[in-house]
Amino acid sequence: MYFSNFHKNVVFDTWYPGPYTLYGDVLTVGAPVGQNRKVSVCAGDLDAGSLQPKDYLTLVIESSVCELGKGFVESFPNLKDLIVEADLPRIPQTPELKRLLKDNQVIVRGTFRSAAEKLADALGLTFIHKNILVAQHYEEARYESTVLTLSFQKGECPYIWEDITCPGISAGNNGGGTLRHDLPDNFYKGGSIEGFASHFASRYAKTILANEELKAFLEEADRRGGRAWTH
């Protein structure tokens, strides 16, 4: 983990949870964990610690980021996968950025109608909807935690990634595992969050029904039709 030397509120992390990485090492940028604040980032932030932008192929812009300065994304010469979780008003399209993204054939991820999708469309890049946290559940009796993620990868069917963690047999040791549940391409058909929730165990129902991000995705995917999450 690296803290910016330029902006005190910006932090970089070289580890990222979830089945996101397509091409290699991941770098995330956002506010420090546990701090509910918005941050802006610029190329000057990359002077943090021993950070070497050329080493990272996947860049994740977390939801805490409110602004991307010119030159930031352009600083990653080997970029292959740009994941934008932040609700950015725009992504500055400099000549350098356009050249980098096109030359590297970068895959851009984000939500429908977002700055990320608009960027991909403007430059003729592949757009894939970002993964969506579906639900989390903690089983107190067994100290078991389960996270369900709706995941999308290039050239694959959508799937639910089930990540389970529980105490191991000794102190400091964790057990659990991961499971992949493939979905049909028309899993969103009807756009109903209630219909989607009905396919899961009842312990997840309340969380799924309250998931506004998932609800918005299902409704828009149904409106668009086809393999709506990628183009």
Describe this structure in words.
There is one protein chain. The chain is of the alpha/beta class and 231 residues long. The chain has 2 domains: 2-128; 132-224, no CATH class. It contains 5 helices and 13 strands. The chain has helices spanning 95-103, 115-123, 193-197, 205-209, 212-224; strands at 2-3, 11-13, 26-30, 39-41, 58-61, 65-68, 81-84, 107-110, 127-129, 132-139, 144-151, 159-167, 174-182. Strand 1 and strand 2 (11-13) form a beta hairpin. The model has no long low-confidence stretch (mean pLDDT 89).
Topology, element by element:
Blueprint: E1 2-3, E2 11-13, E3 26-30, E4 39-41, E5 58-61, E6 65-68, E7 81-84, H1 95-103, E8 107-110, H2 115-123, E9 127-129, E10 132-139, E11 144-151, E12 159-167, E13 174-182, H3 193-197, H4 205-209, H5 212-224
Parallel strand pairs: 3-5, 4-6, 5-7, 7-8, 8-9
Antiparallel strand pairs: 1-2, 2-3, 10-11, 11-12, 12-13
Structural class: alpha/beta
Quickly count the helices.
5
Number of strands: 13
What's the number of domains?
2
Average pLDDT: 89
From the spread of the alpha carbons, the general shape counts as: globular
The low-pLDDT segments are none
| Radius of gyration over C-alpha positions, nearest whole angstrom | 19 Å
Helix content: 10-25%
Largest sheet: 7 strands, mixed
Strand order of the largest sheet: 1-2-3-5-7-8-9
- Portion in beta strands: 25-35%
Q: What's the end-to-end separation, in Å? A: 34 Å
What is the N-to-C succession of helices and strands? EEEEEEEHEHEEEEEHHH
